[in-house]
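REVIEWER CHECKLIST
Item 1: Sequence provided? yes
Item 2: Single chain? yes
Item 3: Sequence as submitted:
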Amino acid sequence: MIGSNIRNLRKSQNLTLQQLAARMGTDTSNLSRIERGEIGISDALLRAAAQAMSTTPGRLYDADLTPSNLTNTPPAILSSANSKDFVHWFRSAAPYIHAFGGSTFVIAFGGEVVSEQQFIALSHDLNLLASLEVRLVLVHGARPQIEQRLKRDHLIPKMHNGLRITDDTAMEAVKEANGTVRVEIESLLSMGISNSPMAGSDIRVASGNFVTAKPLGVRDGVDLQHTGEVRKIDAVGIQKRLDDGELVLLSPMGYSPTGEIFNLTLEDVAVSAAIALDAEKLIFLMGTEGIHNLRGELLREMTSAKAKNMLRNVQESDEPINISEDVNYYLPAAVRACEHGVARTHLISRHIDGAIIQELFTRQGIGTMITELPLETMRQANIDDVGGILMLIEPLENEGILVRRGRERIEMEINYFYVMEHDNRVIGCAALYPFPAEKMVEFACLAIDPAYRGGGRGDKLFNYCQEQAKAMGHQLLFCLTTRTEHWFLERGFTEQTVDQLPQEKQQLYNLQRKSKVFVKVLS
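Item 4: Structure as written out by the authors:
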């Protein structure tokens, strides 16, 4: 989306690809790939593009940055096609709506969300989640506000390894900044303006001394003074507020049993709260759209193990690997959360209007989701998978690619089927029909959800079934096909005649379909 927005704004300003690339300090080939969405865009290039076209990075994330809006042409009232898209999306969101009711989400964001006037839009999304009975805990940051107050008082910020050295004067700025941010958030959550997304909202906000902290002490010979870390989260107290239908707001400050106040990091409070509350989701809003690989591609999903490997590579690489400041803070926090039982941690852009809704209620999401275990698994099918299998194979049956099977037959043969799941959704299936007398097994009914094709999932499911066939003691794997002969040839099958099939299968061979026979030796 960012790439198309850059292209739309460039064309509206009558800039050529070469002119904009020159202003940004990049080459036209790179910019062209960014506009086509083939690669991601770094923070530095995003800022350069915004400056070159006299706009802001946030504007380039705007989902409404379409040619019609750029030319001041009023957008059309929801067309019939758009209405159908909306209905389709709303129906597809139903499983998520059912799943999220009563769940606890911890949503963390830096002080930039408030200082850059982004919290108003965020409050609309929070109101929607609250109306769906999602239990919300917000954790805000205050770094830009603290910096502003230190600058106002002519104080130089002191940092050590990314942590603020909070002396007495800095602590006053910390307290003032956090108090101001908290009051502003509470005021915006109290809005109920007619004809707005907040109309009729009744969000009650609870905040208090829910966080017990301890000092970080001396690190590498440097006394961090009033900078601390979370010792304990009052989960019982927070749960009581959530049970009463309140939204809980946590500031990055903690208190000791002796009455001391400590300056904490946003990510420490957010992760500790998510762990203590056994939250279903921890969501970080950050400056970039998620985690990118070395090719600049957005990673939609990552396991905590892969995230740790990425962080290790960044630290150990001889060549500098540039990752954004937010990723440097939040990705280790996401790993820690997953390893302590938080099911899902999402890293999404704060610049995208409706980012939380798009991430939570669409299949692909718009950011990066970190989980402890892979979301995709393969297993033997059971009777509850019949509906999902039918949805996969019926379109292929209608095209004549697969032999037609009814629900009753699928139910009777369900033990022969294997499925691939993505986030508890059946996205692929295949079947193995054994012929023990000849030690042969038929590979059949391979189907992958169209939305998940192109990622090698067909190969993964085939390899899984092949291993299952070997484990069962079969020596030959065969298949019948009318359309996909090259796919099987590329995977080690050889074409054979019908008389090479098991006797039972020869008797069932459909002479009208004239399917080709392919056989592979299982070594």
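Item 5: Key structural point noted by reviewer: The longest helix spans residues 168-189.
Item 6: Recommendation: ____
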